[in-house]
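Reviewers of the previous submission asked for a worked example of the structure-prediction workflow described in the proposal, so we include one complete record here. The input consisted solely of the amino acid sequence. No template or homolog information was supplied to the procedure at any stage.
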Amino acid sequence: MNKSFIHRISSLRTSYLCPLYFKMPLRWFALSLSLWVMVVYNIPFFRFVADNAHFVPLSRTLLLIGLAGVMLALNYWIIYLLIFFCRYVGRILVALSLLLNAAATYFVIVYAVFMDASMLENVFNTRYSEAAPFVTWPLAIWFIVCGILPALWVLCQRLDYGSWRDLGKTTAWSLLTVLLCATPNVGHTLWFGEYDTELGGLLMPWSYTVNMGRLAAQYREAHREEIPLPDAVFADNEPTAVVLVIGESARRANSSLYGYARETNPLLSRQHNLHVLTARSCATYTTAGVKAILEYKDMDELYEVLPNYLYRAGADVVWRTSNWGEPPIHIDEYEERTDSALFAGVKERILASDKHKVLICLHTSTSHGPAYHTRYPESFEYFSPVSTNVEESRNDLTKLYNAYDNSIRFTDYLLSNLIDTLRTMDGWHTAMLYVSDHGESLGENGLFMHGMPLSVAPREQYEIPMLLWMKDDYRPMRSDLGEVDQHYVFHTVLNLMNVSTPIYDPQHDLLLSRDTE
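From that input alone, the workflow returned the following structure tokens.
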């Protein structure tokens, strides 16, 4: 028998039929991964397109086919390039992206979120204690099947990397496919512009890849040295103490002070001199919401925030937190405590001060999800039964509402007790201002938690409670207030403490300015 024929048969057996020797051509490897990424991780993306592309059926079908072709070709090309040039390092990067894809897709599907910059900021600002409730058996199984196993396949598969000629062919075919698939959909440019944030937040792996870069740029910008505000002075020496309470994920819709049918504010509803404001948040996530509460106007620049500003002016300032995400706080007394401990000893701390002006900021986490049932003591489980995870809540939203409403009742208890304490302080002007950082979705339209882009967020995520109590109403309220936002906090506190400064804005004050009394 011809020796060359025998040699070819032997090579075929050892190279292709035996798994230990088989080397998959890089083009098939890249194509397999591209198909996997499109089919497994981008289901929410295509579902969103199908639900929101209100075109004639043929046009919508062509759009879906075009997007699938572009996605398949681009992912194929980028995977090919990455592994061709970086070899095993490229494989490690691809495997890591599969793990991240699996985790991100699970949260997109289960919690109906977008992986945009604001959501990634939530992720990076989440502590272990807050992240633990998200770790469930469904997540673990999904992560193993859709993340770990394909990542191991990527790392273990033997590859034939091919030649430079193969690279050229791959590039040409990929770009030609993109051109052919994109051209028929050029007329949908305005539609893409309308939904660019949502589409970008669902497209794996580019949603978190691109937005992590954007977030890094925002982080560098936000943590540069803050710009000083004009010097401020106190116009009197009257002992004045203001307690600013920043709530977490409290939405107006579940507060009986605003007409909610359930009695979630039984104590506050009986408080005298309590002013209930109609307010909205300036963002749907903690970092931006707290920044808006503490800054003197809506801006991208990082100017001195309220506690830093008053501290530099000579006030006694305390920051207590059970949360995170605030701008840099430059004061001497910064404490981390549990929610109940935040409110402990407030009166004693004020009376111990050697200054006439005291600001105490309490940054709570009283309604932070998804484990709302952990945000209050067991004795406050007024509504029951309660859910312990979102998966359970999808089947019975009543349990989710029960847990969330219990957290609102616990907040009601903390705030009412604080008011009772401040009322007893003879010789002091005292006030409490409460405002939530943002609202919360509890299953409406399939949405949970918060963090949607404000332009498309449901009202539950930005309609928030804002409450102001003053001892003996020592400062008169304005009578022309409609819906207010979080930027009213800064100037209202300046008025309460009688601060004289050129940046004071009476239009963003809940109270009458002293010049108009």
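Residues 284 and 457 are 8 Å apart (CA to CA). We consider this example representative of the routine output the project will generate in years two and three.
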